[in-house]
């Protein structure tokens, strides 16, 4: 018993020595970590990054045009026409989930000025209709159904209004529009995206919109929201309604070069600007039908065409905004839902298996601990390969990363992704399989998909990149097999 205190003292000393050694080792490890490279400005906000990773989102065009078989209404329609007997917003959400969407956007007011919520600032709304006895609110049902299904909600509010008598009076109409923004952004909970459409007819009444006041109001009311317009400030129009981004597609533009609603800016919006000072990535809006609103004589695009749209939107550094218009009963057509499900099944079939998984990776160089070539095949979004800092001296045209595959299963899709949180860098790239070129392109961004004309089964796949804006940071290289016939695509 007399020796026990001595034994305990020795044990305590040993524990303290071990802890000190462990702390010293930890400090040593910390000191040897290589820091990440500096960002290449501009870079996305956290909200923009979340939006980009959604990849597919949904649009719902529904309103007076649904009942008049129109695309652009006149503004003189009788609210009594609006009577969707079976409106079920939950069914709309199920349609969105069928295509893997995580965000849904409702056209709350289109150009005809009819409001799908009981706005206090106009008599041209659902309050004047027979639907729900004049006590209905499509916006409320929409956002509630979205949240119940785990989806985020967005709102489209048309600046062009063919009904309201204040349109054309700059101050009065801008005050009216701003009041409706307040209604929608304070009365329906969190809104993830708001759409400002610059479209209006050639003979429309002359009207100056106070976009900058609107934008600042939106940010004041909902801090984390993304604002869409021709020039953002958070998300830009892609310049067409086909769902196709440019083969070169930068997330950067100079907003000072863009006037919302002005013709002639489409090409600039489609390709972006490598010298752009503003991070405003593009959104590809397209309907699964020929029109934006439901028309009895129209049907959904075939799967081959929708897949081609996917490759040319998500596969070109964009988010795909896919419209599915509810019909006059207030439901998305069963055939349209089936087509959405078919599209998502095809996407899941193609990208559900990565034939690059398990590959050994090497590169022209590696920056250091945490930036290894193998990061491009680890299946994580937060890791990436970065070349050594000295690799940039005189070697802007010489970066490469190579995968050595374990299997010889054929693939016909190559996926390349940048770590865009630190900026978009790749200006040109090429893909080689066993030394032979199979694909090439310009920008990469969040995701670039190359659909090869025929399947290849090579052992080594090398990605060569030129990145004069800064060392390339690649987060993923994937190889996939697409069993769907390329020849049938549009």
TrEMBL record:
Keywords, ordered alphabetically: Apoplast, Glycoprotein, Glycosidase, Hydrolase, Secreted, Signal
Location, primary (coarse class): secreted
UniProt key word Cytoplasm: no
Short name of any one Pfam family annotated for the protein: Alpha_L_fucos
Domain annotation Glycoside hydrolase family 29 N-terminal: ranges: 81-343
Signal peptide location: 1-26
GO molecular function, one term: alpha-L-fucosidase activity
InterPro entries: Galactose-bd-like_sf, GH, Glyco_hydro_29, Glyco_hydro_29_N
One GO CC term, this protein: apoplast
Record PANTHER family: ALPHA-L-FUCOSIDASE (PTHR10030), ALPHA-L-FUCOSIDASE-RELATED (PTHR10030:SF37)
Protein name: alpha-L-fucosidase
Source organism (scientific name): Paspalum notatum var. saurae
